[in-house]
Design brief:
Elements: H1 6-18, H2 31-52, H3 55-61, H4 65-71, H5 75-94, H6 109-112
Length: 134
């Protein structure tokens, strides 16, 4: 449970009663369950990064494949790869979430068509120097 002392539990029960919320008490995950979740997240992160790579970057990473295979053969090498994964995980864990400004701008499909080429749209006529007289 993430709620530690008795006063926090009492306060949480008051909030639950006040807002009609039911909380479910769960035990904290053990180390194996935590490692499993971290492993899944890292695999998803790495696969996403691999999909985003261009052909040049994929070709470039191929030079490291023999090294990774060699590192995987002994415990010290496995520790080195684990260190790299931990560093990457900590970076992604503490990275700021993508802001709205970072997301690509989506255009409305109507904006993408050039109105001058659209025969259904009537062009507005401009007045040619005539001014209205009141």
């Amino acid at each position: 449970s993430l709620v530690g002392d008795f006063s926090e539990q009492v306060q949480l029960k008051k909030i639950a009663k006040q807002y009609n919320i039911s909380f479910e008490e769960r035990p904290s995950p053990d180390e194996a369950a935590l490692a499993n979740v971290v492993s899944e997240r890292m695999t998803i992160q790495l696969e996403a990064q691999m999909r985003d790579r261009d052909k040049l970057r994929i070709e470039r990473l191929q030079r490291f494949v023999p090294m990774v295979k060699e590192l995987a053969e002994d415990e010290e090498g496995v520790q080195l790869v684990a260190m790299l994964l931990d560093d990457l995980y900590q970076q992604t864990l503490h990275a700021a979430p993508a802001s709205v400004e970072d997301e690509p701008v989506r255009r409305d499909s109507r904006d993408e068509t050039d109105r001058s080429d659209n025969p259904k749209k009537k062009k507005r006529r401009r007045s040619r120097g005539r001014s209205r007289q009141s």
